[in-house]
Amino acid sequence: MPKDSINTYPKSAYLIDMDAIKRKVGTATFEEGVALAATLDVIANIQFIVESDKKLVAVIEDGHFYIVNLYNLQGNIEGACNCEKSENFDFCIHCVALCIFANEQNKRLSKMQQGDSKERIQAYINTMPRNELEDELFKLMTLDTEQQLKYLALADIKHEQIDSALLKKLVVKAMPLKNIRQQTKVKTYFEKANLKINDLISVFHLLPDNAAFSMAEFMLWRYDTIMMKIEDAYKYRLESLNVLKLNLFHCFKQVTWPTQKKAEYLYALHSSEFVHVDFDDISGQFIDPDDTLLSKQYHQLLIAHLEANGLQKSKSTNKLSPAQVRMINSIANYYFATRNAEQAIKFLAFTSNSFTSCINTIEKCIEHSLFDYIPVFLDKAQSLAKQDKQISQLTELRRKLTS
Length: 403
Known about the structure:
The chain has helices at about 20-25, 25-40, 95-115, 115-125, 130-140, 145-160, 165-175, 185-205, 210-225, 240-255, 260-270, 280-285, 290-310, 320-335, 340-350, 355-365, 375-385, 390-400; strands at about 45-50, 55-60, 65-75, 75-80. With about 400 residues, the protein is α+β, with helices and mostly antiparallel strands. Helix 7 (about 165-175) runs parallel beside helix 9 (about 210-225) and helix 11 (about 260-270) packs across helix 13.
């Protein structure tokens, strides 16, 4: 019996008198049936097949699959099973177990019928014949074009048929391209998009790893496209962006690429054409802490880039580009992680261009007992300190170092 087959509740409105069953089968068989029922799971081990209110048929998995029949003959319950002890004639432990489960299901169904609106609907669904349930489900799945496309995608995935055009069409429908400036409309747009994005991600996670990664990328590119048209002053977009980025991180870790190809992909992100998507800490976000080989190969590419191109400051601001700052900080963190703190500090020196960054570097020097490097950063922080709060912070730091 397949585990994912539909499991309905028995329709019988009556409760089975278990005392009468005990008298019928004897104490030993009854207790064996009770013990068996305690070990079975109604979803995984018992599949109800309702034939009529007078007859209940189920398949019970107990080492083997057994077909169990219960008959209600004017209030008298008779049972038979195809196991060796019953031989389709006697009331056996499987019949007892089915009686127990039938009672439990009927009690649960009765309680649901008196519950809230969702519970009452669930109770109705649970008593529908399978053919009616399938017909109703098909109507709901094809109620509108978007729903139909989603379930078509699920059907294709189930049968290992990947229609990339269809999947991309779903993404486009989830994040339509619109000129929106009014903030209430921006809020509404992203509230709807969030629901559809999460729904699509659950579908795409059923794809093979490489296909799931491709769709995760496409979703972020689509987000970047829609943000060209939307003015989001209150950052309503951030929930969608965070979900899409987390999905990309997850799918990247699952994708079956050689390590070098993964490293090259991450390296290329530093010069990606995303306008509204930033990856602040590529190594921390995309690389698992225990994936030391990927971390090594990725950071080797960053170091080679800096060695080949040098540090290039903007002529207008005399500052490093954000991409270069991210590279340098990532390399420094890599050296810290691989117990090469001295090299890490040398790289941090390139990005210690503000009071805050100088203080952070000093604290790293203290943490790793690299005291000889501290005076340079102290002097630089002193020259950059403009506010009373910063001067006080620097004074306290000097006191800490001399105590």
